[in-house]
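Exercise 7. Predict the joint structure of the components listed below.
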Amino acid sequence: MKALVKGAGVAGLTAAYELATRGAIVTVADPCRDMTRTASWFAGGMLAPDCERESAEQIVQDLGLDAADWWETVLPGHVTRAGTLVVAAGRDTSELARFASRTNGFQTLGDEEIGTLEPDLGGRFRLALHFVREAHLDPRAALTALRDRLERKGVSFVETEPGWTKRFDVTIDCTGMARAKADMQLRGVRGEMLILHTPDVSLSRPIRLLHPRFPVYVVPRADHRFMVGATMIESDAAGAITARSMMELLNAAYTVHSAFAEAEIVESGVGIRPAFPDNLPRVTRNGDVIQINGLYRHGFLLAPAMARQAANLAFSQNTTTEHNHEACH
Amino acid sequence: MLSLYGTEISSRLLLGTALYPSPAILGDAVKASRTEIVTVSLRREAAGGRTGEKFWSLIQSLGVRVLPNTAGCHSVKEAVTTAKMAREVFSTNWIKLEVIGNHDTLQPDVFGLVEAARILAADGFQVFPYTTDDLVVAERLLEAGCKILMPWCAPIGSARGPQNVEALRSLRGHFPDTPLIVDAGIGRPSHAAAVMELGFDAVLLNTAVAKAGDPIGMATAFAKAIEAGRAAFLAGMLEPRDMAVPSTPLIGKAVFS
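Solution:
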């Protein structure tokens, strides 16, 4: 089988991997050579199915449970399995109770246990929830490594879509927000993020800071860099980060650890997440075109499950046209 | 029926549109609540002045009246500018006026509120002012041209329910003919029922529904509580007594102890 994958974000690359692994000859087409214009580039990289259950439907937790295993198998060494630590400022501790009542898979920690687990946060928070089975990865390192891995497997990457698409048995459309003009259901949810650098803070796992209006996470990356994100704004405007958002993100980082006040702001970024009205992803098939879209804020968490579903559809012997097969319904 | 600036409304529940898990759940919650009015923040969903067109069209597809608000405005000028933008975007003279005085607690700046209400009312707006439960501020707002008042019953998002029942009673007593809508501070259906029992005309909610475990189920629960509170107010309730008063007569009872 010859397959064309359109889009080299996390959805496209995971789909290409699933197809190539099952024996397809895969070409990936993306006009952006360096991946920095995909929403995936600005992701947090948290593989957090349990925490996400706080605001997402059960299906997100179910589909996301295997994500860490998938990434670990495909890219050994990229996944850190240290869980997630959920904290709140002293006056917002009732938010922890609310979060706990909506989720499962956590242990409640007191201040001493917090200090044992995450020494730099010792004495800063009285109460935390440790979601033990969660994991995280560096999205940029993972995307780059996955692309290398695919090239070694013989997948070819092109910048312009081949005009002779008839040569392909199946096309997997993973173009995310580029589909929004044609698909009225698809909308953009703007996410703004920062990368901070400070040698004064060491963290081993993502920290989620609960706040009634503005929950934020800090995800450690290599070399004392920290991704701080992300806003959730109902807009597809791609302009630079706003002052208000930057202040909120920096305030949150400062609340997690006061040493962030002295951190360098290495980068600010904006990604537009593609989302359907229910904020759930969809794998749909129309003839020999399969779409994966609407990964919303769950790209790295749900892309493996979506890729498997798309590959199943591509390889299914059923040749009749199947319209709007919805993965989550 | 409730009349808000001449518009007849049968549902006494107004619903905010922020913080829902997804637009689809928001839509289902609006339907379940049978609300006829939703509030929308121009600022909250805007990024650099541009807004998500598809989110607006989702809201518009709900077929309910939109009450735009000036959430996040900290000055009279900012609130007036936002109100004018909202009038353009939503083609309505209705504006829920918020002028925030404290960044942290989002407590209204009642001085700025009165000033902004006067400017907007003179400009033809029909102002729904988000205010505290202060009686004198309420009088000033009516003088400024407001025909509706929206007092809080507790700080916004606090979910504490009615904190100062006497102040709420006093507002109701002083302004028997002004529609009074409790806005902010409601956490659970019993809170909503309690203020409706006091004779308030309607309740505006957001967080209590949006952040519930099941927003759609909670929207239904609130709709029922608000109806129950209203019906109880109209039916007339017993006042509390210091003594137990049995409902069966004592005379004729076989044994007196």
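Discussion. The mean pLDDT of chain A is 91.
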